[in-house]
Each structure stands twice: as C-alpha cells, then as structure tokens.
Task: structure prediction
Amino acid sequence: MNSISAIINEMSIKNRSDGRFEGRITVHGRRKSFYGATKVELKQKVKEYLQKVEHGYKEPEKIRLNDYIEYWLKAYKWNKIEPSSYTRLYKVYEYQIKDTIGKQMIGSIETSDIQRLIDDYANPYNKNVKPLALSGPKKIVHLLRPCLNRAVADGIIQKNPCEDVVLPVESCIQTHTKLQVALSDAEIEEFKVVALERYKTTNEYKSRDAFVLLLMLNRGLRVGEAVALKWSDFDIGDRIVRINKTLQRNIQDFSNARDGARRKTYSRVKNSAKTHSGVRILKLNDSAIYYISELKAYDARNGIKSPYLCSTHNGTMTTPRNLQRSLDRIVKRTSIAEKVSLHTLRHTFGSVLVRRGVGIEIVSELMGHANITITYQKYIHVVKEQKIKAMDMINVC
Result:
C-alpha cells in the first residue's frame, strides 16, 4: 500500500449536491467512499482510516475475532504496556482464544459464546483441554472486554458481548488456585542452619547463593528484585537497601518475528520495581547485615568480582533458575516436606509479620504490594489462623 500522504494526495474529491465533500480511495483492491463537511474533515477521516488499516484493520463484514484482537494488540497495547505484560496478554490470546472463539466472525459472537469458552476452561468436557485455575478465566475476560469495547467504539459491533459474562466462583472450578505455603518458625530456623553449613575440609560455605536466599527470606524480596540488586543499591552505613529495579523474564520478542515463526525470548532489568508501590527503601536488620558482610567476605576469598548481589563465580548476573536449584539443594538437606519455591521465602516473610501482629497496612508497604487489598487476600488464611488462636486465649467465664 502506498504511503498515507500519497493516497490522500491522489484521492479524487467532489462536491456533492448536499454540500458535503466526497472522497474515494482504493485500499487492497477495494473502493471506499468518505464524506466530510469540509475537505479538511474529509482528509482527516481518510487518514484515521488508513492508519487503522496499517495496524491490520479490516472491514467489519470480513473481520474474524482473531484479526481484530491482533489489530487491537498492535494498535493499543504494543509499546504502551510493559513488554512482559504484553507477552502475558498475547499468550492468553494465543493459547485460549486463537483456536477457539477467535475463529468466529466478530459480529456473530454472543455473550453465550464467551460464557461457554469460560466454562469450558473452568470445567473442561474435553480431556485434551487443560483446566485453568480462576486466574485463567479472569485473564480471558480481561483481554476480551477492553478489546470488544474498542470494537464498539470503532462501530464494528453494537454491543460488547463480554459485558454480561459471569466468572465462576472458586468452589465451582475444577482446578483450585494453589495456596502458597509458608515456613513455620521451626522450619525457618532449620533452613537458616543448613544454608550456612560449611565444608569440613576447607571451612568454606557450601553455597554463595545461600546468603541471597536468606536475604530474600529476611526482607521479603521478590526474586526479580533480588536478582536485579547491585551492590550500589546498599548503604551499609545507614543500614538500608533501595529496591528500585526488577528482572523481567521470558519476554517474547514480537518486533522481528515473522508470522508463524518462533519468537525469541529474552530477559531484561526494568529500572523500576514491579509496581509503583514496589519502589521502596528497606531497613537492614542485624541478620541482613551479617549475611551481606559474609557474602562480601566469601567473594573476596574466592576472587569473585561483580556489581551484582546475585552473581555467578564469573561475575555475571545469576538467574532465578540457578537460585531455585540452590534452594532445592538446601531444602533437600532439611526435614522440610513441602515444595519450597523462591516465592515461598517472600510469602514466609509476610506470614511471619502477620503472625507477629504487624498491621496489614504495614505488611503491604514492606512487601511493596500495589494496594492493601492484595495483601489481605494473600494473607487472609494467616489472619484467620491468628483470630482462632486469639479466641482460644479468651476465657470469659
């Protein structure tokens, strides 16, 4: 297609008997007319239309939902949200919509079609369909609702069929959301002892990563925050650490990928935290100072020079996968039966704060949650446990 300015300049314009101006252009072999009270208004309408066509727009009667979603993603999401967020959004389209409801014409889709899609993923009839936890259907709705709202605004459909879709409650879904476990006080102490074990022959610590893991547990760091930390983020004199970066992983590169080709994945350090509230300054207690000083001494003894807290022996930034492997090796030497993930360490930190009576609003700030509701939802089970214990202590008569 010729450039937008070239098409507008070559457009034939005539003054109609009703006083309006009419312009006709050919796009992809199809003639289309536009009208305006003035030539300026007419040309602006043509320009806006051609810009949409450049982003993949097609005429309503020829639009499949897949075509419109891809247009919407490119025009309204690409380079407007975080690359990691765009990747997650595109995966919802690719895995849950593209080969199902996405094949339908956008104008034929009804609320019942979308409801059926949600219900099929919540409680699949087909054994080949993997059931999703509640977050799965939510993500489908969070993609379709704003996308179809845009289609309404574009005049492609009259009403958004996603507006009246009902998400099933947790108890009506086949796959329940996995509850995050937290270590008990006894397990925390055992983990600490095992993590700080040394080799008998050299008296050297068995794991450099152990100090990072203990610091994550001690300060409730996200794994992305810990991996992105540099030594320059620490102020040992003032006993603080600045959390202002995070590692984003498994981002798909859409910029150079051709249709049907496998997209490359990459990681990047984002120069801000996961959320606005995630940017925070944490006070370092005596244990944190000890882990940091021992880690620096370990690096000095082993000739490790790196700007990163989470470093390989070559000085490069380590990966979350390597940290998880180190965590697995430590847990294997303990009596802890539950599967422990890197997020378990962060969740344990929050749970300990709640168990010790720290107000939920303070916990929310220390964890860097976007709002207090998120904190309450994540730790409601701990709050309930504490209420039960409180009732056990009450003896009125």
Q: What stands out?
A: The longest helix spans residues 372-393. The chain has 14 helices and eight strands.
